[in-house]
Amino acid sequence: MIQTDICIIGAGPVGLFAVFEAGLLKMRCHLVDYLPQPGGQLSEIYPKKPIYDIPGFPTVQAQELVDNLLEQGKPFNPTFTLGERVEEISKQEDESFILTTHKGTQIHAKIIAIAGGLGVFEPRKPNVENLDKYENKGVEYMVIDPEKFRGKKIVIAGGGDSALDWTLFLADVAAELTMVHRGEMFRGAPDSVDKCKQMAADGKIKMELSSNVTHLHGDENLNKLTITKADGSTKDVEADYFLALFGLSPKLGPIANWGLNIDKNAILVDTKDYSTNIKGIYAIGDINTYENKMKLILCGFHEAAMMCQSAAEIINGKKPTLKYTTVNGVNSF
Amino acid sequence: MDSITVFYQDENSEFQPIEIPLGVDMSLMEVLKGENHPIEAICGGMALCATCRVEVLNKEEVPGLDEANDDECNILDTLPCNTGNCRLTCQIRISEAIDGLKFKFPEEVFA
To answer: Quick check: B35 contacting A, CB < 8 Å?
Structure first.
């Protein structure tokens, strides 16, 4: 089991800065994030966008800020569990916690800091009749093992890069591939668009434009679906798999089940130290809420610093002395 | 004209008015967030996350509503929208041109 002082849930900018603040107070951190890389929405959604309201940086690219935060935290050797979502938290007799991820990884921590942004990014689901009924029985929202589709009849829906890229890849794997897109044009990478169109022209795949998948049919498993065109006409297509690739959307996820006080998808905290209603669990950054909350990275940084002071008091049994980096420097572990 | 009114469809399919003063340099997303309507708008208005999207219900009655630009179309294309009337409210500026606009929030926000 992984042992740490503070387990930070969410490796976005606020979680990463908490590593530094905790390090100054000699506390070690382990971070868990469902995304495969640190950086949260900055790296996942807008890595190239400039940010103008980070103190001391007239402008900084989102990914550059993440890289700098990782660099800043390096002296304190944070450890990471990436690509995993914390499912359960259990409080131990000594007031410490054991966190368990959906893959079974366990972390033993004295303190938990939830820096989960807007929660877990989950696949966007289209509005299709019977969608839930056939989940994992033909309906998939991501490709984990392409071999699963070998020799099968598949229908891919979506018009973004993910749909285009997987169409290109799976055209040679599947027995039959139909691509369904609600628009007439694709705005993905031009090269991928051209290749997909060429494959359709060559008869390697079928392409249904201005169309949506509207109904799913089958017995135990999916075997057929209905495609409806913009003019209202419909056609049925045989399908072993329906791959709905519509990107990711944030959901609060398992956090909602941990007994924390929640208001409008955010965790209520006490602004004196950003503690939740459970002693030893804090919430910082976009995931928390309080009167006059501002969802800004710089406010999250402040919350991280305040949280660490309070966490150190719990761990050491006394209030830490405030030390300045200008006087003491950064003493790495 | 000092203000405009737009309407959202509530859970009971009834239209509720939102009065917005003119002269505010804001997007519809910012107004909706300010009034605690159920949109997330996590990217803050960069047309990147699509969590501020709504379905416009009376496009033909609001000819002044601009067509989506390329950035917005890029993200709309990745959405599971069945009607083709989805818009990102962060890309709709408050002006006389959208007076009378009717829309509904995506089903998932009520889920």
So the answer is: no
